[in-house]
Amino acid sequence: MKKANKKKKRTHVPFRMNMLFFIVFVLFSALIFRLGIVQIVQGEDYQRKIERTEDITVNASVPRGKIFDRDGQIVVDNMPQNAITYTRAQSPDPDEMMKTAEKLAQLIEKETDQVTERDKKDFWIGKNEEKAKMKIKDKEWEAYENDEITEDEIYDMQLERITEEDLRELTADELEVLAIYREFTAGYAMTPQIVKNKNVTDVEYAVVSENLSSLPGVNTATDWERAYSYNNTLKTVLGNISSSKEGLPKEMVDYYLSRDYSRNDRVGKSYLEYQYEDVLRGQKTKMKNITDKSGNLLESEIITEGKRGNDLVLSIDMDLQIAVEKIIEEELGQAKRTGSHPLLDRAFVTMMDPNTGEILAMAGKKYEVDDGKAAMLDFALGNMTTSYAMGSTVKGATILTGYMTGVNEPGEYIVDEPIRLADTPPKSSWFNRGGAFGISDTYALMRSSNVYMFKTAMEIGGAKYVPNGGLKIDLEAFSTMRKHFNQFGLGVKTGIDLPNEQAGYQGIVDPKEPGKILDFSIGQFDTYTPLQLAQYVSTIANGGYRMEPHIVKEIRQPMSDTNKIGPVSKEIKPKVLNTLDLEPGWIERVQEGFRLVAQASEGTASSYFGDAPYKMAAKTGTAEGVYDGPLRENYKNKLTWNVTLIGYAPYDNPEVAMAVVVPWAYESSGNSIPINHHIGRKAMDKYFELKKQKSIDKPVNAIIEQDIVNKKETESE
Looking at 387, 392, 429, 448, which residue is catalytic? Predict the structure, then answer.
């Protein structure tokens, strides 16, 4: 029995030891496994934590896309320029930054004009701590010690008590250091900030590059700025971009940040640059910044090379644009030199392809006198941002509205006679002050009959003309006529690919003045923009299709060879906004009327276009109204006349449509000038002259030539 127990005891001890060894083995295995994970899998991360380094990916800006005209002539380019940059650490040391600024100031020249008085005061306090302390009285220090005033309040007192004499202690060299330090602090952490990019000499660039090791955060780079080949031509339409100092517009910071922009990125601020920001911005260079344990930049490494933005090809013919601007300047200047037109200060011309909506020229000039010096300023934007009463040029829309509402028929005769209403001065056509005779729709356009339009508007309003009687008109006539005018583009936005377009202003409908519908019918009630007028005449020229005007013709891919135009990325195709609901032959009546205006001996524009080889169709206009220009405070209730002209050519196969608008051209019939006709004739002549010249000198324009080259290169690849 004892032997059996003894044997059993001997076998029980080794089993427990084995279990213990097994548990120890498992624990050691887990420890070794964990150490393996730490060292092999996570070793790099822990090593980085030990060394306190960090990789931060940032974006660097690239040049924007270029802008060409329809013939491939460069309009807006990027001019490369040397630049000195500074990348601020995540936890910057102000003393270290100041030392770097002092070193850099010895290597470059930095203008100090941007340094503010507050900058100088802050700098003075930093340089003169003891003097700054003496600006505070003993009782104020005592109050500070007793926590009765704060440190910020002490600092504000010091700033307030720094005198002009104190600031004059700052030397020119110290101000230069301050200007550089100011740029250092203006940037965002780990994002390159421009310190200097204007007039960086080759010597400065080279010296800074050689001393980068002793200038932490400083680097040399190639920056760019927008360059305009034609100076101020079309500048207001092209728009502006923000500077690197401005960065993102405050009101759109969140929008741009959500789209991977940096706060100091340059973006389009207005018009074409703004409208096509997504196209022009390009693909940024991605850089990896490596910092030390203090957050200081150690090195930068490019991860992905950037690519400049896509290029825009405009529908604008810059040769035509420049010529038309010159014509406006000459005619406007000539009128101003006579001295009898003090309110005349602007003129506009829009020329477009009536079949595609492509804007060929959009010129505007504004005459201003500043400090006794006269200047002609670019005001091309006025074609779409300002509106005026356009006068008889809208009579084509009135005639067609009469057809579409069923109150008139093509070829119908209406008696032209002075309209005499109760308690109202007579209203008549300029060529018929006292007679009465029947005229057709085409004759009414050719001679610019007011009465034909008055009676059409009366019919639309459900009124019958009774000599010396009252006028009972359904006020819905205003809405009816506006609705139809809108179909031509009058009174609504044209849809041009630019922001801030104006729709014009509607006259106030007063039940006590129903007769204002007569003024509406001859273009002296609502106001329209010159661009709307161009869209309207284009709609008549092409047979009733309201085309959306556009200033960009194509979007092209950038080429590594900056002298070449890249392949087409997107073509802006013609877009029909609406089609007029017309019976066959209706619009031909208006087209014939417009032809007679320019071609028939009695036409109101025949003396200016009758001999033109390109066979013009046109409509003239004069609108009387109260002056509402920039000098209205000095000329309250002053009556002035706007003069306008619309047309297209050739009349039987239109390829170009035009609107000319000259507001406040004169103040009485005695000093009237046909400036609208002069501008219109010269502009049309220039269009066909350039067309002929280019067909001889440039049988294939630059863009088409480049397309052929691109195609051959693609085929060879």
Answer: 392
